[in-house]
Structure prediction request, 399 residues.
Amino acid sequence: MTGRSGEPIREPSSGITDLLERARAAIADLQKTSTEPSRPGALACLVIVIVASLAIAGLLVHTFFETESPKIDATSVALLAVILIAPFVHRLRALELGGAKAQWQENATTGITQVLTIIELQHQTIDRIYRDGLSGLSDRDGESSGINTPAAGNTPPVPRTLRDILWVDDHPVNNSYELDALRTIANVTVVTDTRQALQALRAGNVDALISDISRDEDEHHVPDAGLRLLRLVNEFSPPQGTPTFFYAGPPAVEQYGLALEKEGALVVTSSYRELFRALRDYEISTTSAAVRDMVSRIPDASITEGGERGIDYVVRLPSGRRIDLEVASWVTRPQMAAFADRVERLVAARDKGDADASWLLVRNEVIDERRREFAMERGVTLMSVDAVRAELANIRQQS
Prediction:
């Protein structure tokens, strides 16, 4: 992907994560420096020799050559101390003269490390909150996001599975946690202005667009930049039908929300949970619609909602074969209880009727071996969108 004048569009690194990494590196350098032996320079060595020589001379004169010599008093002790301490002056950590004291901490990095540890713990906690906002949404029982999902007849044959997301924001560091959470489920490209966004959209391979509303464009503040972008996207010929979500501050949402929705925005919000829920709802609606579209292409096949059987769909094929189908919307690995609940629904539906197969439509990458074995033991087949498409295409060719 390229930007202005053909230069590559570079994704900004996650601001907070990057800063923490740089802080760790800086502390490691400090600790390395503090453990290296300290050696005086040439000038320091010369000063030490001069001070020690003068102290030795003073000690000899005061002790042996003055009246009533030899004598040893506080002056002799002080001069002797100077002689003994002089070679180590460059390594002293504290010095006190006449009640004034200056000192520095040899292990100052210890305190800095402790502060960084606290910041990292806070970062991990906040990051977990955002990831839970993405993965903890129930795909059946959560509140509806209120987005207008596309009708089956308007859904393209290839579903938008949110593999590649384009995020437009002139200050992406403000969305570091949201970006980190989304990057666990999709490839996220960040651009900072409308020109780059249009270029990326025309290049294709964008499954969803997330944008702010007000931003700086060409060194000028444009309060309705997001609305202008959406209108330009709607003028594409042929239409791309890219789902668009707006995530901005409450004032911008309040001022431009209605206009954006009239232009076709699926959601306009300042809540990250509502944004994530809308993304989830859009993916499951388009995936379900795509499955219906696939089945409709098979002569004499039908797909109906599961209804009283407690599952999503029942697919009936021309051969008389019947498939029970559940469409999961997990974008990260589901809790075992949630996964088991979906599997058991298919098992219960099969026990009530004469289904020839039970399919759970789910992303491959969110299912581990333990869950695969659990489903296999109960006769439930885990299917990706591509696997369902290939299977139904094969059935269509045979019919």
